[in-house]
Structures are given as structure tokens and as C-alpha cells.
Amino acid sequence: MNDRIKGKNIIITGASGGIGERMALKVAENGGNLALIARRLPRLEELKQTIEDRFQSKVEIYPLDVSDYEEIPGVFQKILNDFGKVHGLINNAGFGIFKEAHEVPFAEVKGMFEVNVLGLMACTGEVLSHMREQGNGHIINIASQAGKFATPKSSAYSASKHAVLGYTNSLRMEAARYGVKVTAVNPGPIATDFFSIADESGTYVKNVEKWMLKPDFVAEKVVDALFTNRREINLPRWMNAGSVVYQLIPSFVEKVGNKLFFKK
């Protein structure tokens, strides 16, 4: 059991599936208490029951679409009332759609920014003053390698994750003065139902399936970083190396990798 996590109260958004669900189980396994947020109430109820059957952690569920900004303050106030203190927030809610820029309806672009960026910022805003006042806390934002290395068919999604990284990097410097830690997580493709929306044709999954990250592996890396000074988690390492090379010689990478990048 991780003593840094034991007894701590942690909020996870997008908790009803994928790495959100796996992170919740890992936190509970390490003795942390959980406030779980997601749109799908039945999935949250199932997860709550699983955690209560297997662990001693306190767990409460809060159905919420993080793009419903007017609802966020009330939900977070209820969490504070239920738990007293919030020690950690993992902003995991998000989605992507892989299409060329001219094919993406503006409504889908707007939806990605509302959830991936504005929802994340709104949720963070609801805990930030609380964490500053108590002099500690940890905010973890799930971004993406796409935010560091944009490729074709992910223009809007990459833009939203670029925004998450910009926000996270600024927030980290601001929050450090008050004892609040901030970490960005940049995974490559993960084998979850994310791709049921992002890749309706199945082409991308088929092309990269053998390289996709396992959700339990990603969840373990994130939960292990809770309440540490980890600045970023970049997975897998080889993909992050590609992002670094891209920053150094972007024109070369775009020219050499162009055909491969279109395999989404």
C-alpha cells in the first residue's frame, strides 16, 4: 500500500471507463478515498459497488458532463461537503475524433474543446483555491502525446491537448508557491473505448494495435506519481522520443513520416 495515497481524498473525472476506471481501482487499492465523476451513472454505480466490495475506501459518485459548466460548482461543493478536504484531482475526462480538418464539423471541434480544455479548467478552478488554502494538493491533467506531436487527422484533438499542456505548464509554476503539485500525463494510444468515437472506421486501431498501451499500465504510472514532484509522465518512451526529435527537426520528421502519419 502506498502511504502517500492512504487516507487521501481524490477526485477523478471521466471515471466510468478506460484509464479513469483503472485509476480509481488503483487509488482504492492503495487506501485512497474517491469522488468519481462521469456522465454514465450506471457505470459509476457498478464501479462504486466493485470498490466497496473489494476495498475499505470511501467512494462517492457524481454524475456530471464536465462540459455543463454551470453544474460544476454545485457538484464540487457537494464533494467538499461529503469529504471535507480534497487532496488530489485527476482531470481525465476527454474524447477525440480523428478526421481531416475539412471533414470535422465545427460542432465536434467545439465539443472537444468544451470537454478536453474548458471542462478541465473549470474543474481545476473549483479545487485550486481550496488546495492553496490548505497548502497542499496535487492536480494531474491527462493530456496526450498528440499535444506535443500533432499528426494528420487529429488537428482539433491535438489543438485541444496543446491547450491542456499550455494551461498545465503555467498552472504548475503558479501553484508551486502554495505547495500544490501539478503533473501532465502524455500517453500515446491506449487500448480503451476511446477509439469507438475517435476511430469509427477501426483503421487507426488496426494499424497501431500492437503498440497500444494497456490501460492498467498507464493507470499504475499515474497513481504511483500521486503526491510526488513528477512534472510529466510520457508514455511510451519511444513515442516521447519521437516528440522530442520533432521539436528539434520538425520539417525532417514531417517529410519522412508523412505517409505513416496518415495511417489513422
TrEMBL record:
<dbReference type="Pfam" id="PF00106">
    <property type="entry name" value="adh_short"/>
</dbReference>
<protein>
    <recommendedName>
        <fullName>Short-chain dehydrogenase</fullName>
    </recommendedName>
</protein>
<dbReference type="GO" id="GO:0016616">
    <property type="term" value="F:oxidoreductase activity, acting on the CH-OH group of donors, NAD or NADP as acceptor"/>
</dbReference>
<dbReference type="InterPro" id="IPR002347">
    <property type="entry name" value="SDR_fam"/>
</dbReference>
<dbReference type="InterPro" id="IPR020904">
    <property type="entry name" value="Sc_DH/Rdtase_CS"/>
</dbReference>
<keyword id="KW-0560">Oxidoreductase</keyword>
<comment type="similarity">
    <text>Belongs to the short-chain dehydrogenases/reductases (SDR) family.</text>
</comment>
<dbReference type="InterPro" id="IPR036291">
    <property type="entry name" value="NAD(P)-bd_dom_sf"/>
</dbReference>
<dbReference type="GO" id="GO:0016020">
    <property type="term" value="C:membrane"/>
</dbReference>
